[in-house]
Specification:
By secondary structure, the chain is α/β, with parallel strands linked by helices. The chain has two domains: about 1-120, Rossmann fold (3-Layer(aba) Sandwich); about 125-230, Orthogonal Bundle (Arc Repressor Mutant, subunit A), CATH 1.10.10.10. Helix content is about 40%, strand content about 25%. It contains eight helices and twelve strands. The chain has helices at about 10-20, 35-40, 60-70, 85-90, 105-120, 165-175, 180-190, 200-210, and strands at about 1-5, 25-30, 45-50, 75-80, 95-100, 125-130, 130-135, 140-145, 155-160, 180, 215-220, 225-230. The strands form three sheets. A five-stranded parallel beta sheet has the order 2-1-3-4-5, with helices on both faces. Helix 1 links the parallel strand 1 (about 1-5) and strand 2. The chain is elongated.
Length: about 240
């Protein structure tokens, strides 16, 4: 998932970016609302984390401006202000959630997962498609194997996914049964400080096909658009 971090404190931003990056997010960081408005005109993001205490335009004004421009991505506001009126104002300006500093990274990650599920109409941290299951909290993937007479209880086989394979798989499952746009998938894989070519997406798709097709899950290419998860043999 591609995340926009808007924070003017370099040390705070560096810590957040490192923690979110280790959790699998492609994080792009800017230090002002004005810069955030510029980058969102040309790049698409899945979610934004915005500090309220920005210079010139503050985080609330930025959030309001993003909504006025038609950006629907979830927005989580970070602030040192703990007054009820500040929280109410942030939500009224278009924020989806609000966290007071200092905070613990696990809580931030949990709130981001909840916002992403809500934006994709998912109701659980565990994503399922056919025999495949992704636990987005534990970052574990498994295949549910058919039961047999000797094993009446369901069997779960771990599925090994590399970091970028996980990102692709999670994005596809959040979009399913709709197709996932290839350009947005590419953006979910990388931020400004990393290089990845469109052809590289094909590599990860090919690897996932090899891992999923034996278990009845196909990755169909949609010409000119992207990819869609399908059950093998489904009509």
């Amino acid at each position: 998932m591609r995340l926009l971090l808007v924070e003017d404190d370099v040390l705070v931003a560096s810590g957040i970016k490192l923690g979110l990056g280790n959790a699998g997010y492609a994080v792009d960081w800017v230090g002002s609302a004005e810069r955030a408005l510029e980058v969102t005109q040309k790049d698409a993001f899945d979610i934004a984390v915005i500090d309220i205490g920005l210079p010139l335009l503050d985080g609330l004004q930025l959030t309001q401006a993003l909504r006025a421009q038609g950006h629907a991505m979830p927005v989580l506001i970070l602030t040192a202000r703990d007054a009820l009126q500040d929280r109410v104002q942030g939500l009224d300006r278009g924020a989806d959630d609000y966290m007071v500093k200092p905070f613990e990274l696990p809580e931030l990650l949990a709130r981001l997962r909840a916002l992403l599920r809500r934006s994709q109409a998912a109701t659980s941290a565990v994503l399922r498609f056919g025999a495949l299951e992704l636990d987005t909290v534990l970052r574990q993937a498994c295949i549910h194997l058919p039961t047999s007479d000797g094993h009446p209880a369901p069997l779960r086989q771990p599925l090994e996914l590399g970091p970028r394979e996980w990102t692709v798989m999670e994005y596809l499952m959040l979009q399913a049964p709709k197709p996932a746009n290839k350009d947005k998938l590419l953006q979910a894989l990388t931020g400004w400080d990393k290089e990845i070519t469109p052809n590289a997406v094909e590599v990860y798709i090919s690897r996932l096909r090899a891992k999923l097709e034996p278990h009845g899950i196909a990755l169909r290419s949609i010409r000119g658009f992207g990819y869609r998860l399908e059950r093998v043999g489904a009509q």
